[in-house]
Amino acid sequence: MIDAITYSDVVNAVNKEQRQITGRKVCFDSVDPATEHAMAEINSKLKRHSLVAVLFCNPNTGFCRDEILSSLNYLHHRSKHYINIFCCGYGAYWPTHKYPDLQPVTSIDGAEWSYSDKAFVTAIEEFESRTKWKYSGENELLILDVSPSKKECELEINNAIVCNLEKMKQDKAFTSVRAYMESIVRYASGDSAANAWEYSDLKGIEIGKNLLKDAILSLIPNQLQESYRRAENFVVKQI
After folding, report:
1. How many Å apart are CA 201 and CA 210, to the nearest integer?
2. How do strand 84-88 and strand 2-4 relate by DSSP bridges?
3. Is the dihedral of CA 5, 238, 209, 192 positive or negative?
4. What is the predicted pLDDT for the residue at 36?
5. Measured between alpha carbons, how far is residue 86 from residues 6, 25, 27, 146, 205 in Å?
6. Predicted local confidence at residue 41, as pLDDT
7. How far out from the chain centre does Cα 167 lie?
8. Beta-carbon neighbour count of residue 157 at 10 Å?
9. H/E/C letters for each residue in 164-192?
10. Rounded Cα distance, 177 and 137, in Å
11. 3, 16, 115, 125 — which has fewest CB within 10 A?
12. Separation between Cα atoms, residue 128 and residue 122, nearest integer Å
């Protein structure tokens, strides 16, 4: 769990971690020159992919208080290096003079975290200006497939999915946000996503385009997957 006062906080944290990731490479011991050349060519086609989750949850709503706030400390520890989870509008050790509307809302890893409507709205506007996403006003989760960016001040977003958590709970897509986030962490910690992305990169095909949405839909009950799969559905939507 990483605080995200502004969009640039997300960008800086993701790009910093991306620079530290070496990525998966094809490698064999004691190979001949021809095989070594083939491996180099394969590795040159592989992109580094990682998942990022961005929560837009307002602690002044009952849904956020009941479904999200109490789980943030657990998710902070559970997500580990598998997936970065950012909470927009939240943070610790804030410059209070810049955000006079700060309100303490939870504690993460022993540190008091506060929330600011001003910072929350700023993050919304920044994400809206850089993606096709438009905030619904409800509690939402953005899941991003990102790669190392060539620009320090921007994210290299390959694909992005928006999940309306409130509507999904109403539809019984999950029993709780905590359980849903647990399934996302398990998915991010496995090899299935990395293997599929590598196959897509090597073959030069676009399976990666729908991979993220298909993966997220696979985490909900079968009876909801088809209706959510439709492009016009606003509950789980590719942006």
Report:
1. 14
2. parallel
3. positive
4. 44
5. 10, 28, 34, 14, 30
6. 42
7. 19
8. 17
9. EHHHHHHCCCCCCHHHHHHHHHHHHHCCH
10. 17
11. 16
12. 10
Helix axis angle, 177-189 relative to 72-79, nearest 10°? 10
User: Which token pair is 88?
Assistant: 């927009």
Query: At CB < 8 A and 24+ separation, what contacts does 187-191 make?
Result: 187/215, 187/219, 188/51, 188/79, 188/82, 188/83, 189/80, 189/82, 189/83
Query: How far is it, in rounded angstroms, from Cα 174 to Cα 171?
Result: 8
| Amino acid present at 80 | K
Mean pLDDT of successive 10-residue stretches along the chain, which has 239 residues: 72 73 45 44 53 92 94 90 88 81 92 93 91 92 83 77 93 94 88 62 56 86 85 72
In the prediction, which pLDDT does 175 show? 94
pLDDT of residue 68: 95
Q: Report which of 132, 112, 124, 127 is spatially closest to residue 57, judged by C-alpha positions.
A: 124
